Amino acid sequence: MLQDQITQYTAEINSFDTTSAEELEQFRIRFLGTKGIIKDIFDEFKAVSPEEKRTLGKVLNEFKQLAEAKYQSLNESIADSGIKTEDSKLDMTLPGEGFEVGARHPLALVRREIIEIFNKLGFSVAEGPEIEDDWHNFSALNFPEEHPARDMQDTFFIQKGGEKGDIALRTHTSSVQVRMMEAGQPPFRALMPGRVYRNEAISARAHCFFHQVEGLYVDENVSFADLKQTLFYFVQELYGEGTKVRFRPSYFPFTEPSAEMDISCTICKGAGCQMCKYSGWVEILGCGMVDPNVLENCGIDSKKYSGFAFGMGIERIANLKFEIKDLRLFSENDVRFLKQYKTAII
Ligand code: PHE
């Protein structure tokens, strides 16, 4: 009886193997514990006949030694492996793992700089949807229906002739000016930064989307002189004192009179280079006095109030700041390009 049990447990002990300290502890309790198998067997041994005791005594002692030896050797190998993995994980002499710190996109940097300059003049920031209806993108801004002025901005239409007229991706953020004026009464002094879309073939100089910052100032007695002074201040802040400006007459349906503003080339300082096509001047924005029709369309008394508006492409402003010659770089997300503006983080 006892002999059979010992044979069975011996097989169990011999085949037992583990790398887990927890399992080994279970093993110890089962065989070597104070209420364990070996203790039981020794208790039973007391009851056997003296003849049996002689042979069984030896077997029992060997069995006990086997269990103890197994426990000890497994215990050592578990302890060893613990030290080894710790060792190989922790080599204090290795150099630390470097990790890349992200950087702001050059367009985000320029947008922020523009906003900060106008903040000093009391301009806040307004935003609006990129998917617009005909009214906010065109009609309220004095683009008559079927008028060729609509072709100035090749539009991506989403839906033709819906309940609210055509639905399109906004072609400029002037739509946000309309929304702002509709929602309240003057004075308004705000910037409208955002992404705009035009159906143009993608090249180094054109893209089907780009970013704008437009501005609007409406109050009593706002004049063209205010417009000029505001934009002059902006350019001095952005490109440095001494940067010259000039205004050329232009046409926009929503401003009257309208102008385009050039600055003296920031790259060659007027001497002539590729950027300014050897003219010494580069165009950076469109502007003008808000057409009274637009004010009236938005529920504002055009006899009492007047205002100016302007709009610029952030990509263009960034090109002049960073001398980036290919527009496509801005949207390709090539880290080799983006990395170069890390130092520009303010
Ligand atoms: N909305 C014009 C454009 O996208 C820019 C502009 C804004 C011009 C305000 C004049 C006044 O081209």
UniProtKB/TrEMBL annotation:
Short name of any one Pfam family annotated for the protein = tRNA-synt_2d
Read off the InterPro entries from this record: aa-tRNA-synth_II, aa-tRNA-synth_II/BPL/LPL, Phe-tRNA-synth_IIc_asu, Phe-tRNA_ligase_II_N, Phe_tRNA_ligase_alpha1_bac, Phenylalanyl-tRNA_Synthase, tRNA-bd_arm
Q: What class of enzyme is it?
A: ligase
**Source organism of this protein record:** Pedobacter planticolens
Identify the coding gene: pheS
In the Enzyme Commission scheme, what number(s) does this protein have? 6.1.1.20
**What keywords appear on the UniProt entry?**
Aminoacyl-tRNA synthetase, ATP-binding, Cytoplasm, Ligase, Magnesium, Metal-binding, Nucleotide-binding, Protein biosynthesis
* Protein name according to UniProt: Phenylalanine--tRNA ligase alpha subunit
Subunit-level organization:
Tetramer of two alpha and two beta subunits.
Cofactor binding mode, per the note? Binds 2 magnesium ions per tetramer.
Q: What is the lineage of its organism?
A: Bacteria, Pseudomonadati, Bacteroidota, Sphingobacteriia, Sphingobacteriales
